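Feature request, filed as a ticket because there's no other form

It would be nice if the structure record came with a short human-readable summary line next to the tokens. Right now we just get the raw output. Example of a typical job, pasted below so the devs can see what we mean:
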Amino acid sequence: MKSVFRMLPAAGIVLAVALAGLPAGAQPQQQAAPALKPGSPAAIAAAKEILAMKNASAMYANAVPNIVQQTKDTLLQTNLNYQKDLNEVAVIVAQKLAGREKEIGDGMAQIYANEFTEQELKDLVTFYKSPLGQKLLASEPRAIQFSMSYMNQWAQQFAEIVNGEFRAEMRKRGKQI
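Raw output as currently delivered:
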């Protein structure tokens, strides 16, 4: 079970990996990330502690090998004759860039330090260490999973209602769909 906290950034990484192979003109316009002001060392430390408690690193642990694989696959599409070489180079590139996924964690900590004050981050650390915070960390993934399931079920049922309304309105116009 994954929490939304874990799924959303992971989805962002998947999207980035998927878009890596698209020509620049085919990629959707993305809003530029806001400039981040440097957080204090204490704020960054508290943010990193929160991210560790939430096991945030699990969502980007495979970012480097996944992006290397995606890049290799994209290059293979137009350079099939170089398959053996690209397979060998992929191993070299993955080894050379191993560990760079930690930059994601550092960036996330910086974002937290920009979104919350140092005191708020310290208070969050205290909260997550409390019995209720521990319960939240343990129970939130299941609650989010059930919430997502409920939302999907609701959307499916609601789509049937919307479809029925479309059909009814079209029948009023003498058109069967």
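Something like this underneath would help us a lot:
The mean pLDDT is 87.
The radius of gyration is 23 Å.
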